[in-house]
Amino acid sequence: MMIARKTATRLLFIALALFCNLIFVQTGQASGFAVYTQGASALGQGNAVTAHMDDPSAVFFNPALIGNLPGTQVQIGTTLIHSSREFNSALSGFTSEVSSNHFPSTLYLTHQINPSLSLGVGVFSPFGLGTDWNDDWEGRYITTESKLTTFNINPVICWQVTPEISLAAGIDYLLLDATLEKKLLLAPLPDGNQKFTGDGDGLGFNLGAALKLTDALILGLHYRSEVESDLEGSAEFALPVGTPAFIQAMLSNTGGQASLTLPQQAQLGLAYSGFENLILEVGARWEDWSSFKSLIIKLDSGLTTITERSWKDVYAFNLGGKYQLNQNLALLAGYLFDNNPAPDDTFDPSIPTAKSHMVSVGSEMGWQAWRMALAYAYQRYESREKANSVGLSVGGTANGEYQTDNHMLALSLRYRFE
User: Fold this and answer.
1) What pLDDT sits at residue 23?
2) Who has the most CB within 10 Å: 71, 77, 94, 134?
3) Please, which residues have CB within 8 angstroms of residue 331's CB and are 6 or more apart in sequence?
4) H-helix or E-strand containing 2?
5) Which of 402, 408, 348 is nearest to 24 (CA)?
6) Cα separation of 158 and 123, whole Å?
7) Rounded to two decimals, what is the model's pTM?
8) Count of C-beta atoms within a 10 Å radius of residue 51
């Protein structure tokens, strides 16, 4: 039964990857490793859309808004994320630079049964992580590659209680796939290599509300629960010729397990539409990263590795606007400030998170039943100094300055069935 369930999970994961092209391994425009590149129109407004989103990506941002979408609507989208990362060593003064391109993608479907009841479903990646350093860089004994890919299958239902109140609820079914890789210090022999891969799933829920305070003022609220997942996988070791037999026995390929708690999140937004052809929204987001206390990997061989995290809760703030230039063209702009959950004493290059600032612009274009949104965003992470002992016990701390920049280009295409 367990084998069949695991096989089915893997097949579903592969099918979604092929269908949605969600080959996603890069933290995108969020604190920790939460991801918010979930729609081009939203990105163009700095994700300040919790109170007024008017396309099917409301399934992600606030499903209480899908009741405003007439008929049946489907939307697909993708975002090109070009990420550049730089490390300036405090030990040698050398600089290491890496860059990568990734394409997180989304699929949304909504259907209005009647003016009071609407259904929706989304497939998207709410969490993602990707760091890929060179095999010979200074911090190779801490990490060379860290990847987390997630898919959320999120059916929702929306009830228009009164003309002023809309409520929604949904189920989050998450599929997770993780890879953690690093070098092993075996001096005077060449470096060895350790790679852990695992996958799992988890269940959660989300709730939404939209409250029309006045004709021009709407309050939006959205909550997602935490999701706990146990990952089953394996550890593989590549050891150089000449490695002593007792080390080979200790570092033999084996099965393993890891557990991960993805944080609960709450968002609110206040949208004002009292200006002619213009809607503005301010918003805030809370993420419960204090649930990420440590990362524990237990191998069937008996080895256990514990990586302390001790992250803290964070808040983010955003501002965005949409100006309807004419019936078929709208202009978008936004700003987002994101906080940093990782304390200085556990910060390491496997998740080089920091405070960040993002500015974005975009447009929406429509013709007949089609609607297309384009957006560009630039995210600048503040410089982060690592000056702790993380990595000392395995061969080097990689202390120094870390800097990350993201360029994001998003496209969404929507069709409304008559």
Assistant:
1) 32
2) 77
3) 322, 323, 325, 361, 362, 363
4) helix 2-20
5) 408
6) 17
7) 0.89
8) 30
Cα 151 from Cα 201, distance rounded (Å): 9
- Residue/partner pairs of 36-40 with CB below 8 Å, 24 or more apart: 37/79, 37/81, 37/104, 37/408, 37/410, 38/106, 38/124, 39/75, 39/77, 39/106, 39/108, 39/373, 39/410, 39/412, 40/77, 40/79, 40/362, 40/373, 40/374, 40/375, 40/410, 40/411, 40/412
Quote the CA–CA distance of 73 and 75 in Å, as a whole number: 7
Cβ 271 vs Cβ 217: under 8 Å: yes
- Token reading at 284: 């805030």
Mean pLDDT of all residues in the chain? 89
Residues 362 and 45: their CA atoms lie apart, in Å, by 8
**In angstroms, rounded to a whole number, what is the distance separating the alpha carbons of residues 119 and 168?**
9
Q: How many CB atoms lie within 10 A of CB 305?
A: 16
What's the maximum distance between 2 C-alpha atoms anywhere in the chain?
Answer: 77
> Which of 127, 114, 113, 110 has its CA nearest to residue 57?
110
With beta carbons less than 8 A apart as the criterion, state whether 66 and 59 touch: yes
- Which residues sit opposite 202 in a β-bridge? 174
In which band, very low, low, confident or very high, does the pLDDT at 65 lie, cut at 50, 70 and 90?
A: very high
pLDDT digits (tens, 9 = 90+) for 156-181: 999 999 999 999 999 999 999 999 99
Q: Is 253 helix (H, G, I), strand (E, B) or coil?
A: coil
Pick the closest to residue 151 from 24, 314, 319 (CA basis).
24
The rounded distance, in Å, linking the Cα atoms of 204 and 298 is 25
Question: Which of 293, 269, 258 lies closest to 209, judged by CA?
Answer: 269
Q: How confident is the model at residue 30 (pLDDT cuts 50, 70, 90)?
A: low
d(CA 265, CA 224): 5
Helix ranges (H only) for 294-387 are none
Distance CA 308, CA 25 (A): 22
356-367/265-275 β-pairing: unpaired
3-state secondary structure of 392: helix
User: How would DSSP label each residue in 343-359?
Assistant: -TTT--TTS----EEEE
Q: How far apart are CA 234 and CA 251, in angstroms?
A: 12
| Cα(298)–Cα(241) distance, integer angstroms | 27
CA angle 207, 209, 215 (to 5 degrees): 170
Residue 109 has φ and ψ, to the nearest 5°, of: -140, 130
